[in-house]
Amino acid sequence: MALYMLSAWMLAWCFIWLVGSWHAGQGFALAALAVFAVTTPLLFLRRRRPATAVADAPPCPAPDAVCAVRTEAALPGVLDQLHLVLFRAEADGRLAYVNRAWEAMSGRAVADTLGRSLAAFVHPSEAASIERGLLAVARGEQDALGCELRLVDAGGKPLRALLRAQPCLAPGGAITGLVGTLEEVSRRRGADNRNGNARHQVNTLLANVPGMVYRCRNDPSWTMEFVSDGCLELTGYEPWELLESRRISYGDLIHPEDREFVWTQVQAHVARREAYQIAYRIEDAAGRERWVWEQGRGVFSAHGELLAIEGFVTDVSERRGAEERARRRIWFEARTGMTGRPIFEALLPWTLQFAQLSGHPCALLCVHLLGVEALTERHGHERAEQVLTAVARRFTPATGAGAVSCYLGNHQFAVLVADFRSVGIARAAGGEARELIPAVSRYAARLAEALAAPVRVDGARHAVEIAVGIAMSDARYAGADAMLAAAEQAALQARAIGPGTCEFADE
Question: Exposed/middle/buried for 395, CB within 10 Å: 0-12, 13-18, 19+?
């Protein structure tokens, strides 16, 4: 139509140009007349031509109708690709549709299934209750049905499935039956059981590990996402108390002096994606200080993002304590000039055996330093250590060159006298050990007196109290341990009597 109008206006302007001497108003009137003359027959022809064309052309369906037809035709094929069983049943419970997943689950053909109730394929012990539930849904008496049931496949084998059903509504809202799904859970349950057994085995393994396995976030609190049961023995806290820092964070358990060290070490190794091994102190729920050893590493995603830190923490307080005691013993021996205990323990059995075979007696003195516990309570551990060190330094000049002294620990010393003449004791003519008892007793008294002199530390004067137990070598001691035990028992007896007492082992 636009083309026809354009042609008419062109003819009109040509006509105006030809009669350009006319008045403009007369020219416009002639132009309108020309347009009318040209377009009228064209419009008449245009109106008649479409009618003929439309009458001859086949009807064209609406686009929405085309999509609806194609979708409805393709829908069954799409549903057959699903592994989930879909079904529709009439109001009387008879199946009107099931997809192909039913054949894979039950081993029954779709054609043999349609027209029968779903309850016909349920285990006889459950069929009646399932049928009642389905009919209640199909009649609108029940909003939905969801339960686990046992289906019986074509081979007679029961399998567990999860049933879900709800009413099927027509466009007007009327209930025409029901629709639902069936999902097999037998394999999934078996997998869950296997996973459960695996988790149980892992938990059993972790429960027997002497320490705590953990997974935590990389924050200063070391917020725990998982901790094993070993957490209780290590820290004194239940695992749930540390998870997500519900009661206390693991970072708060770390000794304040070690927190910066732990953070710096972990961050350095995580940045390099390396495993780390560190030792530090924690304070458990009872307030006790423990040394722990930790090994861990960062866990990263495929894109290199740090997800968490996983590792293991165990108590090494005993080992650390042994190392600390060894270090302190070496320091103590170096400052006091006393013989190391390993050397003393090797020397004692050799001396006793030589004395028993040669008839040259030896004496073992066990010296207890009294009152150290009370001194520690009043003045602290450092002051008690200073007093102990001062007393230990007196042994070498007090015992003489023929004796070997050793610190046994727990404020106890041992003195082994093998050469009596060098310590001022003359041997009796018979050489018997019992004949030396009076002389050894005087020797022990002089030693106790020399050791018991007051000690001055930082201007303060501290009294020293000594008790001595003595064991003489003879045939009744089967070994060095027996002789040392006898001397210690004698020292306990002397201690019970009072400071400055010397007692011999029982005959």
Answer: buried
CA angle 280, 281, 283 (to 5 degrees): 155
CATH number of the domain bearing residue 111: 3.30.450.20
Residue 11 tokens read as: 């003819």
- Let me know if residue 305 belongs to a domain: yes
Q: What share of the chain is helix, strand, coil (3-state, %, to 5)?
A: 50, 25, 25
The answer to the question of residue 269 being in a domain is yes
* More confident: 6 or 210: 210
Residue 78 has φ and ψ, to the nearest 5°, of: -70, -45
The answer to whether residues 311 and 341 belong to one domain is no
Share of the chain above pLDDT 90, in %: 21
pLDDT, tens only, 205-222: 555 557 888 999 999 999
Question: Do 162 and 292 sit in the same domain of this protein?
Answer: no
Q: 175 is in which domain, residue-wise?
A: 85-189
Q: Is residue 326 part of a domain?
A: no
Q: What is the pLDDT of residues 14-33, one digit of tens each?
A: 544 444 444 444 444 444 44
Q: What's the number of domains the chain is made of?
A: 4
Q: Are residues 444 and 311 part of one domain? A: no
pLDDT tens sequence across 94-116: 899 999 888 888 888 988 889 99
Q: How far is CA 379 from the centre of its chain?
A: 43
Does some domain include residue 411?
A: yes
Q: Using one digit for the tens of pLDDT, what is the confidence trace for 437-489?
A: 888 888 889 888 899 888 888 888 888 899 999 998 877 788 889 899 999 99
User: With contact defined as beta carbons under 8 Å apart, do 221 and 252 qualify?
Assistant: yes
Indicate if 362 and 432 belong to the same structural domain: yes
pLDDT value at 54 more than 70: no
Beta strands in 123-270 (DSSP E): 145-152, 158-169, 175-184, 212-216, 224-227
Residue 470: which CATH number?
A: 3.30.70.270
* pTM for this entry: 0.41
Q: What is the rounded CA–CA span in Å between residue 74 and residue 87?
A: 17
Are 160 and 214 members of one domain?
Answer: no
Nearest to 505 by CA among 457, 429, 443, 433: 433
Pair (398, 289) in one structural domain: no
- Kindly state the greatest CA–CA separation across the chain: 176
Q: Which of 256, 254, 253, 277 has the alpha carbon at shortest distance from 265?
A: 277
